[in-house]
User: Fold this.
Amino acid sequence: MDYGLLIRSQYKAGDDMAVRFDECMAQARLAEKLGFSSLLKGSHYAGAPLQEFQQIPFLSRVMTECPSLRLITGVVLLSLHKPMDIAEQLATIDVMSKGKLTFGAGLGYREVEFEGFGTTQKERVSRFEENLEAIVKLWTEDNVTMKGSHFDLNNVTLSCKPLQKPTPPIWIGANADAAVRRAARMADTWFINPHQRMETILRQMDIYKKALDGENKPFPDEMPLMRELFVAPSRKEAEDLARPYLEAKYKVYHEWGQDKAMPKGDDNLNLDFDDLARDRFLFGSPDEVTEQIVKFNKTLGANHFILGIHWVSMPNNLVLDMMNIMAEEVFPQVEQAL
Amino acid sequence: MGKMKYGIGMRTQYAAGTDMHVAFNEQMEQARLAEKLGFNSLMKSSHLAGHPLQEFQQVPFLGRVMAEAPSLRLITGVVLLSLHKPLDMAEQLATIDVMSGGRLTFGAGLGYREVEFKAFGTTSKERVKRFEENLIAINRLWTEEKVSMSGSHFELDDAALSLKPAQKPTPPVWIGANADAAIVRAAKMADAWFVNPHQKLETIERQAELYKRALDQAGKPFPDDLPGCREIFVGNSRTEAIEAAKPFLAAKYKVYHQWGQDEDMPDDDNDLSLDYDELLEDRFMLGSPEEIAEQIIAHNKRVGINHLILNFHWVGMPQALCLESMTRFAEEVRPLVEQGL
Assistant:
């Protein structure tokens, strides 16, 4: 089992981001010390009122704090970008980190981002697919010529290829059914996002497996699953401590329109807290969290858990405490149970 | 004139086939040495699709190297601003500024390579317009709460950045300019004109007059910091330095010529295909410590440059040679300049 730390790096307006930056670095150092396998950083633009560090410079800086950890883009909002730009930047990260990059990509969903990048929601699928195709070509070939809907590669050879061959692992983050099929077709694995319940994912896992069969591809060795986590010595303590942060967090997602990107039947993020926790989060005492992880592993085959421990407004010490609880009490128990 | 400041230029350019992780370690070593020797800044350039040269990308490189050189200012020299979306650049550079504790200097330029314009879905015809609207948008995103602005290739609709830079009102803005029109733009739109390494001192002198008149027109004072960039090799004599630098520097400028850099330079100084020996006249700082100190003083006295970014490393150059040149500069050239100013 592999465990990754999601460095959310999202903070309230007005927070001193120099202080928060140090806190993020402390999280990374602790993840290294505790034997996590990876570190994941998301991407948002025009994210106010939340403040956040940008993915590419952040991953570049943090790699010095956690040299053993894989560095995961979770996810590049690929529809926004020019493929040569992303191919070049990520290749640099891969070389600088001595081959630690995992390239997670997704569609994005916010209007302000599409507009800011001179594109639209309507174009996002076609841009995603042509961008991904172009990036893989640029990483693996010289003299690439490819005409896209919004770019023109004319005999391009990158300034620097990634260290990992043939490419860094490619994950596609997918919420909706069509995107899950796309993940089977175009990526090394489907990156299961943190928002959906087990029952939804089970249904989609079926879709994924069928799509893999259609492509003659085997089930991937690495099946990553991101989950929000809150662990405390007891369930009651977990509920008391977590409530304010959790509610605030999902309110923002709902305002941003994240729930529109999810399949029917599971698209109301504005639910009651207890309801949200059921089969969706990793939540409770160490024993309970252990059980939940084992269940996800046995039911879905998930074997790389990206843990969303840090929620907006949560003090850093609480994050570090939970990381320690996970390492000391949950990880060993999970190993035993498997 | 103010005390002279020095930066190291980090193009990070290597020949095709070089092991880039080894190259990366060399670059980090150069940065650590610059920190130790008391340099003031480091500069990272930007090229994409750089084959046959290999190089690291600007934003991730600055993100990483800041950890090796915690005192040095971090200069983008330059962001090829015409290629990008302003929301993207504003966000990325703000992150660099905050993570580094407010050390970013934002150098921007037009770019000139067709392969880059095309890959970014634009053309060289659009580059001036895009440059100007992008720079305006970035400044607004950095300084205003919410920005609404309709650009030719982007739309900002009540956009508010995820993070503002640490430096207020913004990090210093430099515009790298070769051609006369760009120098006038630098006077209007930037905190300083960033003098490039390609032109002869006499050309720069002429352009400095142009710059001053444009500043007057814009009602702006001469900047406190006037930055310039030069190729440099510190040897025991001029002849020795010229010979030592030749294989690497000549190769580098051949590539610049192939890329079309000289099309962007003024008519009276735009031929980078010249033989190496003609090319180095009045353009590169190659010589003994005394000769180089003289040249630096001349740049300061004749043009007013007081922040000099020095390119010690070129394609194919052995690391030891580069480190030695850097060290000799700090130990032998720098004190001479201080005495002479």
